[in-house]
Specification:
Number of domains: 1
InterPro entries: L-PG_synthase/AglD
Strand content: under 5%
Subcellular location: Cell membrane
Keywords: Cell membrane, Membrane, Transmembrane, Transmembrane helix
Membrane topology: Multi-pass membrane protein
Transmembrane segments: 53-70, 209-229, 249-268, 275-292, 298-319
Shape: globular
Largest sheet: none
Order of helices and strands: HHHHHHHHHHHHHH
Oligomer: single chain
Number of strands: 0
């Protein structure tokens, strides 16, 4: 077992590793976008980006904030349904603070929210794990429905949208069905034949999902997710229109959601690389020239992913200090 004396030295090493990985991915994404911009000439790409005024950037950030607030509301709703005695502002701090870890591999860093809940409520991680699972399943379900609906309304559709939609919906269904999830965990355990305690804890957490099998709770949480992600998709449509590449609301939302899901499937931190590549490729297929698609992709990622990370970095120390204070006063 690792002693308390060695733990502090391990944590900085892990952070350095994560920062190195993030820096490498950012460099690769930047090089890729720069290369595409160079093919069309920097002047054209910069001219397209500079057409946006401060109020337009503010509108894009505002729509992203709508997404974060609606999803934070869903987090609070699910937390209360699970039985956690937390306030709305407390849940808001947990949810937004977790964004600081969005670019960790597989976004596992967002599990810091569970650490805060453990300090403040005394609940073990395995008891709060269903909350994180339901939150992620809510995103998958909402985005799958938005993608399916927008593709059906968009002329011509999007190649590859159907399998991505099916995968996202299947993952959401499995994650929200206690018996089905427990069966999948048991099957995985039999395949590996190892990690008995880990799989046992996972099965106990899966059974806790029954608390969320409440029609109004599921419907309201799904509605919050749909409204939130639609707001960001609408922001992408506005951006393209302002840059002179109006491809229609349904198609813009479909491309945004598809690229976000595709980036997540790569497992890269924040979907870096995969989301940008998918977005540029799909816009190109729609006839949007590179001098527009490249800066549009860079801007929408800055006003969504990186804006969320900036908010998370601001909220993280506040949530951390509050959880430490709560841990000290909790009996």
């Amino acid at each position: 077992m690792m002693s308390m004396n060695t733990a502090p030295s391990v944590l900085p090493a892990r952070r350095l590793r994560d920062f190195a990985l993030l820096g490498g991915l950012l460099a690769l994404v930047g090089i890729g976008l720069a290369g595409l911009a160079a093919q069309t000439g920097w002047e054209e790409s910069w001219a397209q980006a500079s057409r946006l005024g401060l109020w337009q950037i503010g509108a894009l950030l505002g729509l992203s904030l709508v997404n974060y607030l609606f999803r934070a509301g869903r987090w609070h709703l699910l937390a209360r349904r699970l039985g956690l005695q937390v306030g709305a502002l407390q849940s808001l701090g947990h949810f937004l603070g977790g964004f600081a870890m969005s670019v960790t591999p597989g976004r596992v860093g967002e599990l810091v929210r569970m650490r805060w809940l453990k300090r403040e409520t005394g609940w073990a991680v395995e008891r709060t794990a269903p909350l994180v699972l339901m939150d992620r399943a809510g995103d998958l379900a909402a985005m799958a429905l938005i993608l399916g609906g927008s593709v059906s309304l968009a002329a011509g559709g999007i190649a590859g949208a159907l399998p991505v939609t099916v995968l996202a919906l299947a993952a959401a269904i499995v994650a929200t069905r206690p018996r089905l999830l427990a069966a999948c965990i048991t099957f995985a355990h039999r395949l590996t034949g190892r990690f008995d305690r880990l799989f046992a804890r996972a099965r106990r957490a899966a059974r806790t999902l029954a608390r969320f099998s409440h029609g109004p709770t599921l419907a309201f949480s799904l509605a919050l997710g749909l409204l939130g992600w639609t707001a960001e998709g609408y922001a992408f449509d506005l951006l393209l229109s302002w840059m002179g590449a109006d491809i229609g609301l349904a198609k813009a939302i479909a491309i945004f959601v598809f690229a976000t899901l595709a980036g997540g499937l790569t497992g890269a931190p924040g979907g870096l690389g995969g989301a940008e590549a998918a977005m540029v490729a799909l816009l190109t297929l729609e006839g949007v020239p590179l001098e527009i698609s490249v800066p549009a992709t860079a801007i929408i990622r800055l006003t969504t992913l990186w804006f969320a990370i900036a908010i998370g970095l601001a909220a993280f120390p506040l949530a951390e200090r509050r959880s430490l204070r709560s841990q000290q006063v909790r009996p």
